[in-house]
Design a protein that fits this description.
Radius of gyration: 22 Å
CATH class: Mainly Alpha
Distance between the termini: 42 Å
Organism: Electrophorus electricus (Electric eel)
Order of helices and strands: HHHHEEHHHHHHHH
Largest sheet: 2 strands, antiparallel
Oligomer: single chain
Strand order of the largest sheet: 1-2
Keywords: Adaptive immunity, Cell membrane, Disulfide bond, G-protein coupled receptor, Glycoprotein, Immunity, Membrane, Receptor, Transducer, Transmembrane, Transmembrane helix
CATH superfamily: Rhodopsin 7-helix transmembrane proteins
GO cellular component, one term: plasma membrane
Number of helices: 12
GO biological process, one term: behavioral response to pain
Main location: membrane
Shape: elongated
Helix content: over 70%
Length: 326
């Protein structure tokens, strides 16, 4: 965000950012540290495709929360004395977390959709090697994005107030360069993933309704299908709260900074940026709604259900395949 030109800490963004980042640090750091430990040490990265995706999501959130003390320091003092590199790190980690979270949530949604709608045909796609390749592609793309973002997030000198700034007071040249990046990554990293998740949600709800009446065994009745629906709802909720408002406000504010719009959306952009920062605290909702599913899915159950599918043909075996894939 750009500074509004004041030389004191009276603008509401300073206490708002300070409080928001402090709360996200206090809540998000332990949540994601414990989640990552659970995925790596308890569940194991060699047992389940969703665990691989969620472990990478937790890692992204953890890296972001670890960078928050630098942001808190700046919005407490209103000046920056730690140099360019220290300014580049938290600015870059915000972007890295925002778009890697969006892509990992999309991968989780696609995996769950394939498990429910195409439980048998998707087995060849839903493998651990494929999951690691997908995660590697995400990190590679995010790293490529992080380089220009980092170069655009250096500390700057506010000559009016005679202080060094970070996270704000960007030049018009910085804004033009950053705005072009913002529009591109919004389309690829937010709009497209949101459309995919929305489509996955519709497909899963339709499939669960179509197969509900044919689930007759105790194990099938025990499946908590509401948790599956809520998993997708939590994904959409994160977009509705964190991702979409921030990008809409940021683009509008960028258009104002580039003199295309007269109205200054700075205050709106400030509030939505705080909302975007809370995604590392909301992502554990995904872990919660996936927990029982992951515990039920064992190698023994998959082998048993696959054998049942082969021996009974289509019919009820299709729904049994859904139970195994969940």
């Amino acid at each position: 965000a750009a500074a509004s030109g004041d030389c004191n800490l009276t603008h509401f963004r300073y206490p708002l950012f300070r409080i928001t980042y402090s709360l996200v640090l206090v809540v998000g750091l332990p949540l994601n540290a414990v989640a990552l430990w659970m995925f790596v040490c308890r569940l194991g990265l060699h047992r389940s495709v969703p665990v691989v995706y969620m472990a990478n999501l937790a890692l992204s959130d953890l890296l972001f929360t670890l960078s928050l003390p630098l942001r808190i320091t700046y919005f407490t003092t209103g000046s920056w004395t730690l140099g360019d590199f220290a300014c580049m790190v938290p600015g870059t980690m915000f972007t890295v977390n925002l778009y890697s979270s969006s892509l990992f949530i999309t991968l989780i949604s696609m995996d769950r959709m394939l498990a429910v709608v195409y439980p048998l045909r998707s087995r060849a796609l839903r493998t651990l090697p494929a999951a690691w390749v997908a995660c590697g592609a995400v990190w590679l793309a995010i790293t490529a994005l992080a380089i220009p973002v980092a170069l655009n997030h250096k500390a700057s000198t506010d000559k009016e107030c005679n202080v060094s700034r970070c996270f704000e007071h960007y030049s018009d040249e910085n804004w033009r360069f950053g705005f072009n990046i913002l529009c591109a990554v919004t389309a690829v990293g937010i709009v497209l993933p949101f459309a995919i998740i929305l489509g996955c949600t519709v497909a899963v709800v339709r499939q669960l309704r179509a197969t509900a009446s044919s689930l007759t065994t105790p194990s099938q009745r025990g499946m908590n299908r509401h948790k599956m629906v809520w998993l997708f709802m939590s994904n959409l909720l994160i977009y509705a709260i964190c991702f979409i408002p921030f990008h809409a406000a940021f683009i509008l504010y960028g258009l104002h900074k580039l003199h295309y719009l007269g109205y200054n959306f700075f205050d709106v952009q400030t509030i939505t940026m705080c909302l975007a920062s809370t995604n590392s605290c909301l992502d554990p909702l995904i872990y919660y709604f996936s927990a029982k599913t992951l515990q039920r899915k064992t190698e023994t159950a998959e082998t048993r259900d696959l054998a049942l599918v082969k021996s009974t043909g289509t019919g009820t075996s299709y729904d049994t395949g859904i139970a195994a894939s969940l």
